Amino acid sequence: MTVAMRVEALGVRYGALVALQDVSWHVAPGEILGIIGPNGAGKSSCYDAATHMTLRSGRVWLGDREVTGLPPHALAALGLKRAFQQNAFFTTMTVLDNMVAVLAREGGTGLLQSLAMPWREARRRAALEQEATAMLERFGVPHGMHALRPPNIPYGSQRMLSIALAFGRGAQVLMLDEPAAGLGGADMAHLAALLRRLRAEGVAIVLIEHHMDLVMSVADRLLVLDQGRALASGPPQQIQNDPRVREAYLGQAA
Ligand SMILES: Nc1ncnc2c1ncn2[C@@H]1O[C@H](COP(=O)(O)OP(=O)(O)OP(=O)(O)O)[C@@H](O)[C@H]1O
């Protein structure tokens, strides 16, 4: 089986507290892995550990390449992109300019070259704007919002913008930490449709999510964390009927 990303025996400690212990998972291209668990189960620690945002033990591979020692920006350059719970954009720039900035950073010519050849810079800017417009529409941020500043567009569109900015020019693996937080029904449906589209394009998605309806409807496989450890893994339907999972969530056997 082709694997887009694999983590082995991840562990995170905060002082004496063991937040994550011996957690392993993998995700394939064109697959959505949902990571769920009750409050404090270790989901965010797992996310931070996998993307090397925190001190941790364990090993990480992207495809066949071991990337255990690499910092987050190097992982991003290799195609591991991540979006956070909080929307992340420049609030003083327009929606379009936010997208242009990401695309320019990921594939742009250097400042010196731009200064030396300003006519080339103007052409490049026009091409970036065209690309950014297409990207935003692909991620469900309509054209009418592109000239606005992000705080002035609806919350659901802000989330889609955040995911588009995280995705940038592309991702082999997209990790999302609670993308549905604060979304209503229609926005949730847009998000689910976007995730399915990205999956169909071959992106491997790791979805850390509290919202059960979303995760159950889009994930191909689930990993359940409880008290920092892997409690169960398998297809959503199997997990839904697992008495250990019900007990972890409800505090009682089903
Ligand atoms: N920076 C930190 N310092 C100390 N303890 C932390 C820190 N971050 C998380 N913890 C603790 O580690 C454990 C796992 O937390 P984590 O945030 O990974 O769980 P979670 O499943 O994401 O929780 P939630 O669903 O509530 O966001 C919890 O006991 C939490 O209190």
UniProtKB/TrEMBL annotation:
<dbReference type="GO" id="GO:0005524">
    <property type="term" value="F:ATP binding"/>
</dbReference>
<feature type="domain" description="ABC transporter">
    <location>
        <begin position="5"/>
        <end position="252"/>
    </location>
</feature>
<dbReference type="Pfam" id="PF00005">
    <property type="entry name" value="ABC_tran"/>
</dbReference>
<keyword id="KW-0813">Transport</keyword>
<protein>
    <submittedName>
        <fullName>ABC transporter ATP-binding protein</fullName>
    </submittedName>
</protein>
<dbReference type="InterPro" id="IPR027417">
    <property type="entry name" value="P-loop_NTPase"/>
</dbReference>
<keyword id="KW-0547">Nucleotide-binding</keyword>
<dbReference type="InterPro" id="IPR051120">
    <property type="entry name" value="ABC_AA/LPS_Transport"/>
</dbReference>
<dbReference type="InterPro" id="IPR003593">
    <property type="entry name" value="AAA+_ATPase"/>
</dbReference>
<dbReference type="Pfam" id="PF12399">
    <property type="entry name" value="BCA_ABC_TP_C"/>
</dbReference>
<dbReference type="InterPro" id="IPR032823">
    <property type="entry name" value="BCA_ABC_TP_C"/>
</dbReference>
<keyword id="KW-0067">ATP-binding</keyword>
<dbReference type="InterPro" id="IPR003439">
    <property type="entry name" value="ABC_transporter-like_ATP-bd"/>
</dbReference>
